[in-house]
Amino acid sequence: MIESKVVWTDNDRFIAQALSGHAIVVDAGKEKTANSPVELVLIALCGCTGADVVSILRKKREPFTSIEVSAKGERSSTPPTVFTEIKLLYRIGGKVSQKSVEDAVHLSETKYCSVSAMLAKTAKITYDIEYLG
Questions:
Q1: Among 56, 71, 77, 112, who pairs with 42 as Cys (CB 3.0-4.6 Å)?
Q2: pLDDT tens digits, residue range 116-133?
Q3: Secondary structure letter of residue 110 according to DSSP
Q4: Please, what's the b/e burial string for 93-102 (b: 16 or more CB within 10 A of its CB; e: otherwise)?
Q5: Which residues partner with 69 through β-bridges?
């Protein structure tokens, strides 16, 4: 079981915490003093798939030197404004096999990343891979 909670601090700002004990600030207002809940969803997607790719490439003993995952999302124009399209960009550094990277990204998307699986219910998720050498 995973648990989390938020405690209102002021305006539209909350302190969020999960069982891990780590706290973050969440701001649902226009001031943007912290990430919004929806921004955190994209961050969670990048972190989830990024961790999968790192794990898979390590198991394959691929000599990556850097991995960056970024996401751009389009949302529905009517409430609830769920994500309808998400474009991921993987930037991989090191002398890695392109096939190994493509396999790792594909496995993350289709098998391992639970955040991706949840978002795929409403959004078309696509990706590009850039190799940094």
A1: 71
A2: 999 999 999 999 999 997
A3: I
A4: eeebeeebbe
A5: 90
Residue 107: predicted pLDDT: 98
- Cα–Cα distances (Å) from 19 to 2, 33, 49, 52, 129, in that order, read 7, 24, 21, 22, 34
Helix (H) or strand (E) holding 101, with range, is helix 98-107
CB 74 within 8 A of CB 65: no
pTM: 0.94
Give the residue from 93, 109, 96, 2 showing the smallest Cα distance to 46: 109
C-beta separation of 72 from 84 below 8 A:
no
Please name every residue paired with 27 in a beta bridge, in sequence order, or none if there are none: 13
Is residue 108 within 8 Å of 117, Cβ to Cβ?
Answer: no
